[in-house]
Amino acid sequence: MGSLAGVASTDSPGNGGRRGRRPGDSGTREAILDAARARFSGEGFRGATVRAIAGDAGVDPALVMHFFGTKQALFVAAMEFPVDPTEIVPRLLGPGVDGLGERLLRFLLGIIDELGEANPMLGLVRSAVTHPDAARMMREFLGEAILDRIAAAIDADRPRLRADLCASQIVGILMARQILALPELAAADRELLVGIYGRTIQRYLTEPLDSS
Amino acid sequence: MGSLAGVASTDSPGNGGRRGRRPGDSGTREAILDAARARFSGEGFRGATVRAIAGDAGVDPALVMHFFGTKQALFVAAMEFPVDPTEIVPRLLGPGVDGLGERLLRFLLGIIDELGEANPMLGLVRSAVTHPDAARMMREFLGEAILDRIAAAIDADRPRLRADLCASQIVGILMARQILALPELAAADRELLVGIYGRTIQRYLTEPLDSS
């Protein structure tokens, strides 16, 4: 589980002219992150370009890529995700779709239960439900960084719909267990929920959608 | 499906001294609703008493009951629910738990798809995710008006946990199909989703929770 610090300190390879941090790096990095947050919020994940973000921060686009490596990784750092989904999703998908439901749930309930109010997913959900621009940003980032990747691993009809179905149960768990804190669900044993919800997710991933 | 107007114009029986509306009723009714919104928001559904709401509105508690019948119905009117869950839930539960998943989903997706941005559930979710007091209010009202009633109809272990599990999928559908508008889920045929999610809800209601 890469921490934010781990994500943030990543130096991408392939930029031989730069070696590690210079005294001014920290301020520059913050300026890039501020510019990224503003652009992503205003223009969505797809609309905001690295070039425009670099321009706002007064730096060269190559420096943005030097610090962050990819636009997805820049987004993850700007939004202060506790973990980097671009690392986590491939790891969860690694053993294949078999058992993915339980692996995903064990990971997600761990995040929800252990981070509590410090869970940055909360801030994203709060923004998404109150600001249409933030909802678009979430939709685009979730789609590209997580749901399209899950869909690509599914060997069944309508793979992206299946990924969206999984997302609908997962965001509902966050809402019901943490935000609304429905009493029996909030108190339920985590491994019991891993089993119950894991089966739901597995069904969405692999079983026939139309059983009629 | 009772409209808000239908809910709002309900006169409860059993108060023989009053007959229909008097010229001043409309202003009094609005004053009660304003007081109710403030009390429910600040003190939760359980904490806010009809007596305190009546006091804030400068009327007798009996008049509040004359207008609204029950505290739940007062809440429904104050929150401008499009439908009255205290009417809907017993109707959906009427034929028993068999097939409840599909009945519930067909009803809910109808609300979500037909009301769009006019869906007052959106306002409640927005408040709940941004204000802890609103989350408590939702939790208490949902619990008493909907989830405890569903739990009472379930003939299986841990009935209230089962109702909470259903709520977690339903709020997730609202989030994913309408608020985040995940593309394949937002575009999916409603009856396909009634089948898919109906089976999930039915499983939460009736099947063994611990399959290990």
Write up this protein.
- 2 copies of one chain form a homodimer.
- Chain A contains 12 helices and no strands.
- With 212 residues, chain A is mostly helical.
- The longest helix of chain A has 23 residues, at 25-47.
- Mean pLDDT of chain A is 86; it is low at 1-21.
Mean pLDDT of chain A: 86
Could you list the spans of chain A in which at least 5 consecutive residues all have pLDDT below 50?
Answer: 1-21
- DSSP strand tally of chain A: 0
Seen as an oligomer or otherwise, the chain set is homodimer
Radius of gyration of chain A: 19 Å
Largest interface: A-B, 47 and 47 residues
Q: Structural class per helix/strand content of chain A?
A: mainly alpha
Largest sheet of chain A: none
- Described by the principal axes of the CA atoms, the overall outline of chain A is globular
The helix content of chain A is over 70%
The portion of residues forming beta strands of chain A comes to: under 5%
Q: SSE string of chain A, helix = H, strand = E? A: HHHHHHHHHHHH
How far is it from the N-terminal to the C-terminal residue of chain A, by CA?
41 Å
Number of helices of chain A: 12
SSE diagram, text form:
The structure is a homodimer of 212-residue chains.
Chain A lengths: L3 H5 L16 H23 L2 H8 L3 H8 L2 H8 L6 H9 L6 H16 L4 H11 L1 H22 L5 H21 L3 H5 L2 H17 L6
Question: Briefly, what is this?
Answer:
The structure is a homodimer of 212-residue chains. By secondary structure, chain A is mostly helical. The first copy, chain A, has twelve helices and no strands.
